[in-house]
Amino acid sequence: MKLIGSAVLLIALLTACDQQPDFNTDDPIAGASAHWISSDRVIWNTTESAATYELRFSETAEFEISSDGISGGEVITLQSEAELDATQADTYRHINGWPVYSLESDRELVQRAVRGLVIAASYDANGNVVEVTRVQTPGVIDEFFRYDGTLGPVYNGDEITLNVWAPTAQELTLKTYNSDKEHQLNIEADSYDSETGLWQFSGSVGDLDRAFYRLDIQVFHHENMEINNYEVTDPYSVSLSTDSYFSQFADLYTDDSLKPSGWDSIRKELPRATDITLYEAHVRDFSALDHSVPYEHRGTFMAFTHHGKNGNELSNGMAHLIALQEAGLTHLHLLPVNDITTVIENRERRVDIDQPYSDLCELMDYQDELQPYCDRFGDMPIVDAFAELAAEDPATESIQLPYSLRGRFNSIANYDGFNWGYDPFHFNAIEGSYSTDPDGVQRIIEFREMVKALDEIGLKLVVDVVYNHTSAHGLARTSVLDRVVPGYYQRYDVITGEIETSTCCPNTAAEHYMKERLIIDSVVFWAKHYKVDSFRFDLMGHHPRYVMERLQDALAELTLEEHGVDGANIYIYGEGWNFGEVADNRIFDQATQFEMNGTGIGNFNDRSRDGIRGRNFTDTGRFQGFTSGQYLFPNEEAGSDRESQLADLLFQADQIRVGMTGNLRSYPFVNREGSAVVGFDDMIGFADLPQESVNYIDKHDNETLWDNTQTKLPLDMSTDDRVRVQMLSNSFIIYGQGVPFFQMGSDFLRSKSLDRNSFDSGDWFNQVDFTMETHNWGRGLPPAWDNRNNWDRQAEFLRNDLSRPDKHHMELAHEVFKDQLRVRYSSPLFRLETAEEVNRRVMFHNTGPDQQPGIIAMTVSDGRCAGNQLDADLDGILIVFNSHIEEQEFETGITGLELHPILLNGADDVVKSARVSESGTVSLPPLTSAVFIQKSIGHQGEFVCNESE
């Protein structure tokens, strides 16, 4: 058989009598199950009947393969029964039980091999081919070709150097283009360094600055088993053309035209991690339909500059953020802002819902199902047409029809300006759809304008980063990493060689050195050049723990004095979920919840989330949480097993208690069974430091808190009580230790019309109205692709008018949220920094099997037993939560308490009736949390400490 690219395969006749019956001559190269991990070791689980083994490589990707043997290329003999050293065995723990082979190779041989097709072959005693498989080579690439310098464009005086890491490339040329994307220059590499795999190009600033460019690469790719020649953008691009067809040279270091006035003088001293509160937003959600923002700035970074300062008008959204910041909010978290794949940056090619409905009809090719709406609405704006349909039926299918009629990839979702952005294209370049001009450097300027504006209102910036997957792999245009160094940056199945996609999309492999470098380089780049103050990692558990720790170390080298960045206090947090091909530390020690303790890196705490609100409706239906009625006011589907309901409620209470300590592994308390336990028991607590628990109750994923709660509550519950459930739920997050996190709008009852996954559902379902004149409940059934199975249930809820709050409900919730924030920031006792402080000072009352159901009572001591006084004004705090729909009394035995003055003078009239008797009996209104304080009178007094410590 002859393999020459994709040419016709010439198959030899099978004449040998001892032909192996399982050798497939039609497709002789089976999978990619051999792994060349170092210069002297290959791991390969080949057929046991084999007698001899070899690697074979061809720089032209040409072999002749038949059952009788293989010809072509160069041969490297493999010796069986070799062993791995301890480091190799750990690095390849997922395959270290496979047979190991030794070989002899050096840098020069490896360099030639990895530039072509490498196969492994085994033969029987008669010399017949038993098995042929492609060889995966990242291990040996990591041994010989590492580069620790700066990649991408580097400006040095009058010269620009472009550094490209591409050790498998056979040829590489730099091609430049002018502003009209007309080809200008072909620049040959100044050098290729075989010690590092680095190609280097240079030119004058006059020739290259602001020029667009691409890399013309000749490289073997395993997708088509050919030597390919194509143009590709730079993986380390800092600027791009519209829709990312071209990279662009730009000087983010010294070019003052790319910096807002005063940019270099911005010096942000960052708070302690436990002093942070996070508010998660999406750039487009924030302003796409906000009419207080100029039209050209809606849905862009520039919307954040309308902050009422420097002559700018004040928008509704920025007024909202300012109000939250004044109450204590510290950080605005933005969903991904780097260059993404799915949103069309050229606005002329988009259809957004402020355009005429007729544009939608043209896009959808007048399909029969859509024609009646095309006839009815004509040139009416799509948003107004949707509003009419929702007014007629809050559970209509008509609104989502343009999203689902022809499938997501052929619908309005593929043509509008909305997507969450978890589909990275270029990691170091700004997303162009959030700029007023996506063609070139304007996106850089406007992002910096946003950062400056947020700093001027006292908010730090978090960016959401997605390094665990790419939007494409192989030869697709939107595949960058895998086109520059094929087979290296991505993670492939160890047997078949197929791409791993457990994250949703083509997974990347941070266990490979240069992918780790890309992550660290990229985060440091964003911190240095965009003054980003915190990073949230998508699916962080798919990365090794050591990568995250090395990232921390790299950031810590950035200083205010030298770099203008307080790198040591940049807060890192992420999703430490344990799943997929890396689960249970299969490949490396993961950056998951129960592996990151002691690092100071935050993990989302889904334990207390599930305890408070009940799990997601999509997953568990109407199963209720601690605040949404479990045992206390069962819904219509709760059943009659009161004993089980009580057991569920008490377990949820323990989840919440541990969560409110910062989800500490070591926290000692008495659990629902009366046993003396610590937070780690029942697999609840995972943190060693309070800052390692990001306590949340909703975020962009899954149903919003409002939506999820409506499915749990009894159908006849009043709207007023539904609002109180939301305010009570949020208070568990605000009043607990750890780092609070909220989705934008949860402070005023945000809804997405029950959409469980609104990543591509457009502006209509994702709208946030900061005027609170409208609410997104009952905006029609959400798009079919992630909701159809629940439409019947969703329709029932969406038509329940009791779940539709009015403006006064939203305003109350927002004002109460701000009061709760003010309470949190009124005393450092709410923001303890160490486990030792929490374990000693925080105590839960009303625990054990005889506890009063539905009541959680927590004290935080600043009395003598606590040690050093942290708050000169207080001896201690009592926080009580009542999840009943009736007033409750609870004995504390603590005297001298009074309602916190912020609550006493706050927006919630109900909480003002909360009281404590002289003997310490708390009376608490229904569905209410209250904070009581014991003032310090001139000296540190007595207050209860944790008796379980």
Write up what this structure looks like:
This protein is α+β, with helices and mostly antiparallel strands and 949 residues long. It contains 24 helices and 40 strands. Strands 21-22-25-26-27-28-31-32 form an eight-stranded parallel β-barrel. It has a seven-stranded mixed β-sheet with strand order 7-4-9-10-2-3-8. Strands 13, 14, 17, 18, 19 and 20 form a six-stranded antiparallel β-sheet that branches. Strand 29 and strand 30 form a beta hairpin. Helix 7 (357-363) packs antiparallel against helix 8, helix 15 packs across helix 17 (642-659) and helix 19 runs parallel beside helix 22 (807-824). The relative contact order is 0.08. Residues 1-21 have low confidence and may be disordered.
Low-confidence stretches: 1-21
Number of helices: 24
Radius of gyration: 30 Å
Cα end-to-end separation: 73 Å
Can you list the strand order of the major beta sheet?
21-22-25-26-27-28-31-32
Mean pLDDT: 95
Please describe the biggest sheet, giving its number of strands, its sense, and whether it closes into a barrel: 8 strands, parallel, barrel
Tell me what portion of residues adopts beta-strand conformation: 15-25%
Broad shape: globular
Proportion of helical residues: 10-25%
Structural class: alpha+beta
Q: Number of DSSP strands?
A: 40
